[in-house]
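Consider a protein example.
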Amino acid sequence: MTKHDPDVAPAVDEDIVYKATHAKPVRLLSVDVMRGLTIALMIVVNAQMGRAPFTQLSHAAWNGVTATDLVFPTFLFLVGLTTVLSISARLALGASRRELFMHALRRAGLLVLFGFVVNNFPFLHLQTARYYGVLPRIGVCYLVVASLYLLSARWQSKLLIAVACLVGYWALLRFVPVPGFGLPTHSVLINDHDGNLAAWLDRSIFGASHLYEHTRDPEGLLSTLPAIGTTLFGLLAAVWLRTRASTARKAAMLAAVGAVMLVAALCWNPWFPMNKKLWTSSYALFAGGCSSLLLAACIAVIDLWRVGRSPEEGSDPASMRHPALYRPWLVLGTNAILAYMISELGDSFLHLVPTPSGTDFKLSIWHTILAAISQPAWASLVYSLVYLAVCWLLVYPFYRKRIFLRI
């Protein structure tokens, strides 16, 4: 895992407001906590070192799913969810749809620009510059979902589009012959590493020097289609959260839908294997189901059972009245973009700092930890947790002063 292939990037950091019917808008603490948990895991998995980290802290080599593979789609799920909550609140306050579309267009453009900076920092070489990436994918998915919701708030059309994204992507990879390889499932596997349609298309557009894996890119053009489906799952969850249903019913329905999605993904897996690097449709369903279950759990624990919460606490997650149980996650969850940029650019900075031994500062720290802990997997975990703590400490002053990076 390197800085050029961050496992996730922050969700679009909206003012997450939930306009309940005939109720004063409040901030969903459960969403901020869920986002904080996700960004914390993102930093941990991106900071793994050595050749033998724990399996769940590494991407699956090709087919299959690990906990690491679920981090990015969870952010896209949250992008869809927070986009609906924010747009709905702003429409209620009198903002025009044209104004909100231009706002979304600007945000998407900045995410693409930030992605280009992160991908190619600190030395930009146009001959090998990477244009695809996590932040550009988030920007595109955000813009598409925001535009669809501004056109119509009806959930039925969004469900149909999500299904069309997943089924359409499978049909393209299954039935379109790949030049130089042949017809998928006949001459080549449907998810062959280099012989799939998505990889061929990326090579045709940019050439090998601009792709992360040279023959293909995990955030390529065609696989953005099912990623949009993932983001739409978050949109559908948000539409459900804005209904009059009780908190208990909302959590139960999210859990039930998540379980159904997991079953559907497992049933599809034999014919279209789960694969994060291709973002296969079965993978999108599985990841969406896990995100829905995680959201249901956060809502049940935080909003329904109010574990660790007091009746007098404020609705602002940055409030110091919140209990210590949630504050560590809120530091990251309420400033996700800042946390992401610090973690990614900080990693590049550590590579640039020399040490007397001749290695860079990052490798020097790693060798020190590895010498103290003989098992590479545990040493890698310790290093990543130390790095997470450093990133958290750098973000905390902004949280305490209620300074939040917005784009």
Remarks:
- The radius of gyration is 21 Å.
- Confidence is low (pLDDT under 50) at residues 1-26.
- The first helix runs from residue 29 to 46.
